[in-house]
Design a protein that fits this description.
Elements: H1 2-38
């Protein structure tokens, strides 16, 4: 039971990290795009 609980929390953590990474990447690209569009 404890193993399953730890596993599900790890998967949830991993999912959250992936989403956070993609969100940061998206904002980075968006920021660079808007900056270069000004020039």
């Amino acid at each position: 039971m404890a193993l399953a609980c730890a596993h599900s929390s790890f998967v949830l953590n991993f999912d959250l990290q992936v989403k956070t990474s993609f969100t940061l990447l998206f904002y980075c690209v968006f920021f660079l795009k808007t900056r270069f569009d000004e020039f």
